[in-house]
Structures are given as structure tokens and as C-alpha cells.
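**User:** Here is a favour to ask of a fellow structure person. Please take any protein you like and set down a full record of it. No explanation is needed for now; the record alone will do.

**Assistant:**
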Amino acid sequence: MGIVAKQTSLNVLIIGIAFAIGGLNTLGFYPLFLSAEEYGLVVFLLATSNLLMPLIGFGVHQTIIRFFSSYKTKEEQRRFMSSVILLPLFISLIIGGVGVMFYHSISAALSIQNPIIASYTWVIFVVAVATAYFEVFYAWARVQLQSVAGNALKEIFPRLYLFLLLLVLYIFDLSFHYFIVALVSGYYLRLLVMIVLANRCYPLRIRLHFPSNIRSILTYSVTILLAASAGSLIIDIDKFMIPQLEEIKQTAFYAVAIFAATIVEVPARAMWQILNPLVATAVNENNTKEVNSLYRRSALNLVIVSGWFFLLVNLNSEALFSLLPNVGYQKATLVVLHISLAKLITMMFGCGGAIISNSSFYQISLVFSVVMALGVSILNMVWIPLYGIDGAALATLVVVGLSIAVKIMYLQFKIKAHPLSWNLLKALFAVGILYTIFQYIDWTLSPIIQIVLTSAMVSGLYFLIVAKFKLSDDLLRLVKRIGK
């Protein structure tokens, strides 16, 4: 896992910087410079565009990763790239045409509970197109095992751009309308830069001939499209449904809590960029031993590092939210616990998702995604009216927990491998013990001092346990290499 360790370390640094900037935006600038209603609207528009993005992208980004390494000559690779690169354009033209024809009806339907949505419905489609094509060209670079620059564009650029945009909003008293226009423009600027970088990695030469396995490519793309659409529902359906059932400002409170909880998956987001192509290559070469090794080791390392983030996030969430101006943010700590626990459970699956999506039985991912999407949608409809944003978070936790258990059992049946090990269970036990102990410590200090002391004490104890019991050889080697 040498190349994984090297590029993952860089990607962790990039995502760490991105989350630091994003934290300043989400926990500082957004609540200060935008009203809760305006912030909730931004969250709703971007979340809804994420729901539309998989349909426009047509699964092309994952199709590139799945099939590119199976072609052995430059000519075959160019035919393949030429056959998939224009698919999102055709889809976006069709959806755009339908959107123009029924724009007013769509806007009215989305803004029944919150009329402010009607004026900005166009943002959903425009951002979805830019995001879909960004993922296509990002995948183009990733199959060349060049993920770092694209990851910086994906993670750092939008947050840094938003950071500067929020400053401009405050300093120059920019209207909210122009803020939205500038925000949309940033997505297209990022896309243009990604196109340039992808062409430097692997210049595209258009070929008018389709590859010989075009039917398999299209079948895979359609399957991934449906699975990705269902996956997007799982991730963003709550942010879409809350404004349909509650005041839109509740979406702002929910988004802040979600951001805090999402820190738990930072290691996975970094490692995924390079692990996915490696898993695809191992599957294409029928290297079962390598697939199983990547599966178990990725799960162990992700649980250890994400477990640390889980402790930091949940033991400090109450003190952190007490620093925010609106009391509504302070009521979202239970959302943080539910979502971060769902993220930690997901880490136990390691690169299992990549194994499924790159294997001959990839169609099962559609079944999993559809069932999960239906489950979280039904639970949201029941629990949001009863428990508000806490109900939305609980729905996610229940669905994710059950789905990961089923997926682990499925891969055990298909490839006779599972991600669980004694060291992984020891890491989870350490997380649970430390969380329980520190949760019941009643601090009487200022929030900032409490955050610093809690983080230092928990980190020291946790990594002492990891080192003492040698829970991960990969992480210990990485620490020694960094120390040199």
C-alpha cells in the first residue's frame, strides 16, 4: 500500500485544510453574515443539485474508473473515453429542455412551505451540470493515479472560494442575489481548471469508433446512474425534505451539525481517491489476495483514524455550538452524534463499496442503494414531523447501520472475505470507553479552554492505546516515516 500511503497522506492534508476552511465558513461566517433563512436556502439548493447530479453525470465518472484499466492500448483507451465523455452533455440538454418548459410548475412545487425557494430554483440545474462534469474529468485524472490536484480542486477550492465570497459579501455589502450568482460561477471556474489538469494527465484524442464492449459500458453506466441517484437520496434527501416539512432555517441548523459530523469521514474521503482505482485494477486482474488485503486493512485503518475524529467531534460539539450566535445551532448536538456514528459504522466497511462497484456483481449496489433510499425517505417522512432534525439524523443512522451489516454479509458470501479483525474491534472498544468516560466529565471552564483540554487528553490517551496494543502496522509505519 505504498502508493496508497503516499497519496492518501497528501489527500488527508488537503482534506484537512479544506475542512478547516469549511469549518470557518460553516461555524463562523455563514451564521454571522447570512440569516438562518438565507443559509438554509443555500443548503437546500446545493443539496437538491446533488440529487440531480447523478442523473446528468449518467454514471460516467465511475464507468471511467471501472473500464479504463481494462484497455491495454492507447487506441482502445481513446475510443472508450470518446464514447463516454459526451453522454452527460446529451443528458443535460434533455433535462435542461424539460426544466425550461416546466420551470414555473417546478418552482411552485418546491416553494410551497418556503416561498423564498421560487426565485432560485434555476441554481439547482446549473450547479448540477458543473458538478457532474467536474466528476467526469476528475475520474479522468484519477485513473492515471493523479488524485492530489483534483482532490485539492474538489475539497479546497470551493471552500476557499466561498470563504472569499463571504468576506466580499460582508465587506462590500453584497446583495444575497449577487452572492448566489457568484457562488454558481465558482463551480464553473473549478470545472474549467479541472478540464485543463485532466488533459495534462492524459490528452484526449477524439475517436469516432465505439469500443467493442460498448453494450457492457452502457449497461454499467445505467446501473451506476441508478445506484448513484439512490445514493444521493441517502445523503441529501434530508436537506431536501426538511424545508418541505419545517421552516427552512432548520436546514441551516441541521447543516452545521452535519458538517461537524462529516469530519469523521475525512480519512475515507482521502483514501478513497486512490483506493478505488487500485481496487478496480486488482479486480480486473483477478487478484483476489490483493482485493482481500485492501478490504481488511482499509477497514482497520479507517476505523482507527475515524474513531479519533469521532471522539473529538462528539466530546466537543456542545462547547463548540455554544459559541454560535443563534440558539438553534446549540440544539443540534444529537444530530452530530447520530450522523457521526453512522459515519463511523460506514468506516467498518473499508473499501467494500469499491469492491462491489468494480466487480462482476456490481448490479447489487443498485439494490442496496434503492432499498436504503426508500428506507431513509420513509423514516424521514415519519420522524421529521415528530422529532424535527433529530428525526432526520436518526433515520440516517438506522438505515446506514442496517445496510452496512447486510453488505458485510453479502461480500462474505460472494468473495469469502470480511473486514472485521480483533484489532478493529479493540479500536471500537477504545472509542466507546473513552467516549463514555469523557462524556460524563462536568467541565466548568470556558468553551474554548474546554475544547483544547478535552482534545489534548482524549488524543493522548487514544493514540497511546493504538501504539501500546499495535493496532495497525500501516499507521505505525506511516508515523515513523513522517517522523523521519
